[in-house]
């Protein structure tokens, strides 16, 4: 009897990226609209990917099949 394979969670794969060193990155929030009130410095900072830490990092890796 064949064992089942774990499938990649497609929603997670579109939102998160795992680096070669094992970090989990995601896009910043609050960058979609209402940017006129934000400073240019803040907008540049929000364009960068942020890293995920703690228990959430382990959960995301499991969804992506990397744990």
Describe it.
Helix content is 34%, strand content 12%. The protein contains three helices and three strands, in the order αββαβα. Strands 1-2-3 form a three-stranded antiparallel β-sheet. The mean pLDDT is 93. The longest helix is centred in the last third of the chain and has 9 residues. It has one domain: Factor Xa Inhibitor, CATH 4.10.410. It is α+β, with helices and mostly antiparallel strands.
Largest sheet: 3 strands, antiparallel
Number of continuous helical runs: 3
Oligomer: single chain
Mean pLDDT: 93
Produce the secondary structure layout.
Elements: H1 10-15, E1 16-18, E2 24-26, H2 40-47, E3 50-51, H3 55-63
Task: Characterize this entry briefly.
The protein has helices at 10-15, 40-47, 55-63, and strands at residues 16-18, 24-26, 50-51.
Record keyword descriptors for this entry:
single chain, 67 residues, alpha+beta, Factor Xa Inhibitor, three-stranded antiparallel beta sheet, elongated, structural constituent of ribosome, Ribosomal_bL35-like, ribonucleoprotein
